[in-house]
Design brief:
alpha/beta, about 220 residues, 5 strands, about 10% strand, binds magnesium ion, about 50% helix, 9 helices, single chain, 5-stranded parallel β-sheet, Rossmann fold, globular
Length: about 220
């Protein structure tokens, strides 16, 4: 019996395609405000930050290394501002709303679990009312696919891995964390083909720097 449902946020509660459209619509205003050079620098910094995150999640223990992300406070703030504005102007994924309603009807506790701060995201999307809490892997100290982030939720809500369902869009992070922990996993939507080359590019950015993560599945 499922007693706790956790939701990944990015790409799960909303689609990246819609987010991209929303960001493009906001682009001219942003360009007018900061200019092309500053905008290009902001995008580059956000890219570099996420490349570091991807490299850290591929280490053996997926530990968050804040020291390597120290110089990105401004990039994080810029990304948050852009995402908040974009998410406020778009709708969440309808498949997610249907499932959120279903679990609400069944009185199953639901939480949001993102690699990053996500309270403002669920609020901007208008779905914060469904969640008993929001969790950030960065704050917990381990990126997905570390099973420790799921264990933290299970401790907080007093449930066993077999009573926990996690819903996400990435088999290599959300799905793998569940495989290591023993929680149930539901893939809500595979990432669109459009994003695979981008993700591959991001991965190649860090290739050679670290060895691929060694998978150790729970029995
Ligand atoms: Mg995601």
């Amino acid at each position: 019996m499922i007693k706790l449902v956790s939701w990944d946020v990015d790409g799960t509660l909303f689609s990246y395609a819609r987010l991209f459209q929303s960001l493009i619509r906001l682009g001219p205003r942003k360009l007018q405000l900061v200019g092309l050079t500053a905008l290009a620098r902001e995008i580059r910094e956000v890219w570099d930050f996420h490349a570091i995150v991807e490299s850290q999640r591929r280490t053996a223990d997926c530990r968050v290394d804040e020291a390597r992300m120290k110089g990105f406070a401004e990039a994080n703030a810029n990304e948050k501002e852009a995402l908040q504005a974009a998410l406020q102007r778009m709708s969440p994924r309808q498949a997610a709303i249907r499932l959120l309603e279903r679990f609400k009807g069944l009185r199953v506790q639901q939480v949001a679990l993102s690699d990053f701060e996500c309270g403002y995201k669920v609020k901007a999307l208008g779905v914060d009312r469904y969640f008993a809490g929001t969790y950030s892997c960065r704050e917990i100290g381990y990126w997905k696919p570390s099973p420790l982030v799921l264990e933290r939720l299970q401790r907080d809500f007093g449930v066993q891995p077999g009573e926990h369902l996690h819903i996400g869009d990435r088999p290599d992070t959300d799905g793998e964390a569940c495989a290591r922990n023993g929680a149930h996993f539901q893939l809500i939507h595979a990432s669109p083909k459009l994003w695979r080359p981008l993700r591959s590019l991001l991965r190649r950015t860090v290739e050679g720097e670290l060895q691929p993560v060694k998978l150790c599945r729970s029995s």
